[in-house]
Amino acid sequence: MTKKKIGILGASGYTGADAVRLLARHPNAEITALTANTHAGKAMSEVFPHFFMLDLPKLVEWEKVDWTRLDAAFCGLPHGTTQEIIAAVLKANPRIKILDMSADFRLRNKGSYAQWYGHEHRALELQDEAVYGLTELYREKVTAARLVACPGCYPTAVLLALVPLAKAKLIDVDEIIIDAKSGVTGAGRGLKQNTLFSEAGEGLSPYSIGSHRHSAEIEQEIGAAAGSAVTVNFTPHLIPMARGEFCTSYVKLNGATPDDLRAELEKAYANEPFVYVTKKGVLPQTQNVRGSNYVQIGVVADRIKNRAIVLSTLDNLVKGSAGQAIQNMNLMFGLPETTGLEQIALFP
User: Fold this and answer.
1) Are 17 and 158 within one domain?
2) Number of C-alpha atoms within 13 angstroms, CB side, residue 293?
3) Tens digits of residue pLDDT in 266-317
4) Residue 47: per-residue pLDDT
C-alpha cells in the first residue's frame, strides 16, 4: 500500500509529539506536515530534542499547509480552537480523514458542549457526522467515518472498564464512584504553576472536583450502554509522574459477584488486541502499560457487601490519546488495527 500522507495539527504539544513518535515508524504513514503556530519555522527537534534522528518537515502555521495533498490529519489542539480549524481543513479537502484528539466533537448532545466548555460550538454542522472513537466500542462506525472524535484519557480508561458491565446490567449505574489519577502530561505542555516540578512533585492534587469535563463523556457512554441517563461521581487527581493513568471505580452489584464482573470483561475483550483483563488476584499497574497502547483492567471484591472495585490503567498519551487515534486511523484506511502500535511497555 502507498504510504498515507499525514499532517499533525498542534505538533508542539504532548499528544501531537506522541503522534509523531508513533507515526514516524508506522510502515504505512508518511508525516508530511507539522503545525505549531507559536513555533512556526522551527525544526521539530528544536521543540522536542528526542526527535534528533528523524527527518521531519519543519513546523509551520496551519494556514500554510496544502491540505489537499494529505490523506489524514491528526488534531492535537486544545478544545475551542479546534472546531473552526477542522471545518476549514475539511472544506479544503472533503476527502481527508480527521483524527481529532481534542474534546470538540465528543459530545453528541449539541447543547451539552456549551454547558461543559463555556461557549457555543462553532462547527455544529460537523457534530452529527463525528464518531466517538473508542475503538473497542465503535469499531464499525470508525471504519466508515471521515471525522473521529477520539475520547479523553480518563473516559477511555473508565469506559473500557465499566461499559460492558453496564450493558450486561451487572452493576447499578446510579452508584458509580470513580477515583482517577493522571500524570502531569495530562495537563498539557503550557506553563502552569500547578505543574511546576516544585509544586507537582512529591504530592498528589485533586482538581475540577465534581465538575471535570470528562464526566460528560463518561455519562454519555455509560448511559448509552445502560439505556438510561446516568450521573457519576468522578474525581481526578494529578500525580507526580510524566505519563500514565489509573482509574479506580467503585461499583454496586446488581445481584452479581466480582467474579461475574471479571468473566463479563474477559468475554467482552477476548479478541481485543490491546485490552487485557488480569487474572484474579493480579492488580493492574501503570508501569505495565507505560509507553504502550495497552490497557489493563482488574476486578477486586470490596469488603463492603454487594460492592466491587474495578481497576483500569493506560498510558494517557498513547491509548488515552495518540495511540488510540492511530488505531482508529488504521481502521479508516483498511489497515490491520495493530499496525505501528505493538510496542511493549517501558519498564522500569
Assistant:
1) no
2) 25
3) 999 999 999 999 999 999 999 999 999 999 999 999 999 999 999 999 999 9
4) 97
The predicted pLDDT at position 80 comes to 86
Nearest of 210, 232, 251, 254 to residue 155 by alpha carbon: 232
Distance CA 253, CA 261 (A): 9
Same domain assignment for residues 199 and 75: no
pLDDT tens-digit map of 198-245: 888 898 999 999 999 999 999 999 999 999 999 999 999 999 999 999
Q: Which three cell numbers stand for residue 24?
A: 514516524
**Residue whose C-alpha is closest to residue 61's, from 105, 7, 101:** 7
Detail the DSSP E strand segments found in 171-274.
177-182, 205-206, 233-238, 245-252
The CATH code of the domain that includes 28 is: 3.40.50.720
Domain that holds residue 85: 4-129
Is 137 within a domain? no
Distances (CA, A) of 305 to 253, 254, 255, 256, 299: 9, 12, 11, 11, 15
**159 and 114, same domain (yes or no):** no
CB 79 within 8 A of CB 103: yes
pTM: 0.96
The residues annotated as belonging to the active site are: 153
Report the percent of the chain where pLDDT is more than 70.
100
- Based on the structure, what is the number of domains in the chain? 2
